Amino acid sequence: MTGQYTQTVEVVVDGKAKATQWIGIAAILLSLGFIILAAFVNWYLMFGFAAFLLIGIIQIHRYNLVTREYIYSFSDTRLVVAKKDVVNRTRRVLAVLFKDVISFAPLEGLSEDGDIVCCKNISDMGVYALDFKAGEEVCRLLFAPDEYMTELIKHRLENVSDEEKE
Predict the structure, then answer these.
(1) Where are the domains of the chain?
(2) Which of 13, 114, 127, 134 is most buried, by the most CB atoms less than 10 A from its CB?
(3) Contact 17, 68 (CB under 8 A)
(4) Cα–Cα distance for residue pair 54/58, rounded to 1 Å
């Protein structure tokens, strides 16, 4: 078994997210038309320019936050989950110490409101639930590790339980 292992899971950017980007671009172009109208017709049309520009910027920003892939990094002490968005910014979602893990098993049933979902689709085969302590509360991570990472996590959790018994 290895001490370091990293896995990436790609997420398909759906048409709804792509439509958000195009709506933003169209709103910004429309706002430029309001500048021309405001110069020749009425200066109050600058409020229309500001509104469409703001709508366009917000829509493009929402598209830029869409997750493109999840990165699971295993080490001897923790599991780190990060996500990469469509502009290749990587942000860490969470880091779980193995000593804080309560259970690790395939997902059975449905997800709950407080679950941290870090996979393509929770109804896919191979989605696991990792319950862990975060302070006083118990959180649940739903993610889709490959077979090798699954074995690494199981092996590490067995070692953690053996260390606690000693």
Answers:
(1) 5-11+68-165, 15-64
(2) 127
(3) no
(4) 6
Predicted pLDDT at 165:
44
Q: What is the pTM of this model?
A: 0.81
The residue assigned the tokens 């009425």 is 42
Please name the residue that has the structure tokens 């896995």.
Answer: 7
**What is the topology classification, in CATH, of domain 5-11+68-165?**
PH-domain like (2.30.29)
Torsion sign across C-alpha atoms 24, 26, 28, 31: negative
Bridge partner list, 139: 132
User: Measured in whole angstroms, how far is the alpha carbon of residue 68 from the centre of its chain?
Assistant: 8
Question: pLDDT of 19-52, one tens digit each?
Answer: 999 999 999 999 999 888 888 888 888 998 999 9
E strand intervals along 39-77: 67-74
